[in-house]
Amino acid sequence: MTDDVQKHSVHTLVFRSLKRTHDMFVSDHAKSIAKDEQSHKLKMGVKVKADYSAVLHMPILKEVKDRVYQQPGSMQDQLTYSQTGDDPEYLITGTHAYPSGPGLALTADTKVHRNPSEAGVHSMALALPPSQAKQEAIRTAASVTDIHRHIGGAERASALSIMEGGTTRNSLVRKVPTIPKPQWHPPWKLFRVISGHLGWVRSIAVEPGNQWFVTGSADRTIKIWDLASGKLKLSLTGHISTVRGVAVSSRSPYLFSCGEDKQVKCWDLEYNKVIRHYHGHLSAVYDLDLHPTIDVLVTCSRDATARVWDIRSKANAHTLTGHTNTVATVRCQAAEPQIITGSHDSTIRLWDLIAGKTRATLTNHKKSVRSVVLHPRQYTFASGSADNIKQWMFPDGNFIQNLSGHNAIINTLAVNSDGVLVSGADNGTIHLWDWRTGYNFQRIHAAVQPGSLDSESGIFACVFDHSESRLITAEADKTIKVYKEDDMATEESHPVNWKPEILKRKRF
C-alpha cells in the first residue's frame, strides 16, 4: 500500500492541483462571456433597423465595403445596391425628384442617380491645370486631424507667401524672442574703503535718516559709522559670537541684531544698551527683518525655522515651520505675502503672517537660496543662488526670468529704484544687472585690503543707502567698501555692449 502511494503520489497531486486551480478560476469575472451567434445576429438586426433604416438604400463606397465586417445579419445584409459596369446606381425613394426641386414628379430619368466612376474622377482631376488644382487643394477645408496636428501653430510660426515665377509658395518662419534693449546705467566705481573691524563683516543696515549705517562682524561687535565721512561713531558689544544680521527700526529708536550665539537683541540707541532679548531659537540666527508697518520682528535660523516676534512684549507670535534645512534669509513687506524666506533646502517660501502658514513654496532653485531682495517699486522680488538669480512676481511667486552668468555662491542681493540689481558672491565679485532685461552691464572685483589673503575677498552683504547714490558692501577682508556712480560717464563713453541675439533663458 505504501509503495502504491509513493508510486502515484506525484501524478495524483499534480492532477488534483490542476483540478483545484480550474475550479477556482473557471468563474473568473474578468473573462469575457462567449458570444452567442443567434442572439448577436438578432441584436444587430434590430440595431440596424432602428438606427440606420433611413439610409439603408444608400450605396456603400468601395473602400468602406471592404472594411465592413462580413457577418450574417449585419448592416451589409440590409444595404441594397446595384452596379452596372463601373457606374453604381440606386433608386431614389423620396417624395421629391433628385436632384430637381420639390413639387416635380419623379421620372424614369430622375429616379435613378448615377455616381461617377473612379476612372472618370481621375480623368477630371488630371484635366485641371496645376495652378487650379493647387487652389482647389487650398480651398479644401482642413480635417479634424489636421487641426489637432497644427494646433497652436499661429503662435509658433507665421506663414509668408512668396511669389516665385507666378506660383505661390507658403513657407513657415519661426518667431524667435529677442532680448529687449536694456536701459543705460552709469558704471559704479570704488569711492571709499573703511577699516575697523577685526573679523569678517557679515551684515549692514542703513538708518532711516541716511546719516549713519551699522555693521555686524565676526569680531562679535556692532559698529556704527558716519555715512558721509566713513568715521567710526560707536561700537556695541554684547554678542558672544558672529553678528549675522542687523536692522534699524523706522518706527522707534531701536537697533536689532542677531548672531550665531542664538541670541536676538534689541538695542535702545538713546542709551546704547540692550533692553530686550528674544529667546526661542535652537541654533544660530542668520538673518532678521522688521515689518514696515507693524511692530513685528522676523528672524530665521539654522534650526530650519523662522520666528515672528512681538517687539514690545517679546512674545513669539508664530514659529514658521516647513523648511527642511537652514533658513538663510528673511524679508518682510506690507502687502501679501508679508514674509518671504530663502533656505539651504533650495526652496523659497511665501508666508501668510496672520495664519502663520506657508502660502506658496517655490522649488525652481537647485542650490541653497542665501539671499532675497524685494524691488522698491514693483511687486516683484529676486532670489540669489549658486545656480542662478531668479526673478519672481508677487503674490503667488510666478517665475519671470533667470539672470545667468554670476557663477559663484551668491551671498547677497540689493536693488534700487532705478532698476540696478547688485549681486555679491563668495569669490569677491560683484555683478550689476539691469532689472528689467537681466542684462549684466558691469562686473567688479575689488582688491583686498593690504595684509589680507587674496582668498579673503568674499562679499557677505551689500545695501544701497536711502538716496540710492551709494552702494555699501561688507567683505571678508574685514573692510566696508563704498561705491558711487561715475558722474562723468555718459552713454557715448560707456556704451552698452548689447546685441539683439536670440533670447536664451531657462524656463524652470
From TrEMBL:
Belongs to the WD repeat PRL1/PRL2 family. Identified in the spliceosome C complex. Component of the PRP19-CDC5L splicing complex composed of a core complex comprising a homotetramer of PRPF19, CDC5L, PLRG1 and BCAS2, and at least three less stably associated proteins CTNNBL1, CWC15 and HSPA8. Interacts (via its WD40 repeat domain) directly with CDC5L (via its C-terminal); the interaction is required for mRNA splicing but not for spliceosome assembly. Component of the minor spliceosome, which splices U12-type introns. Within this complex, interacts with CRIPT. Also interacts directly in the complex with BCAS2 and PRPF19. InterPro entries: Prp46/PLRG1-like, WD40/YVTN_repeat-like_dom_sf, WD40_PAC1, WD40_repeat_CS, WD40_repeat_dom_sf, WD40_rpt. Pfam families: WD40. Involved in pre-mRNA splicing as component of the spliceosome. Component of the PRP19-CDC5L complex that forms an integral part of the spliceosome and is required for activating pre-mRNA splicing. As a component of the minor spliceosome, involved in the splicing of U12-type introns in pre-mRNAs. GO terms for biological process: mRNA splicing, via spliceosome. GO terms for cellular component: catalytic step 2 spliceosome; precatalytic spliceosome; Prp19 complex. Keywords: Repeat, WD repeat. It comes from Tetraodon nigroviridis. The keyword Repeat applies. The lineage of its organism: Eukaryota, Metazoa, Chordata, Craniata, Vertebrata. This is Pleiotropic regulator 1. WD repeats lie at residues 194-235, 236-277, 278-319, 320-361, 403-443.
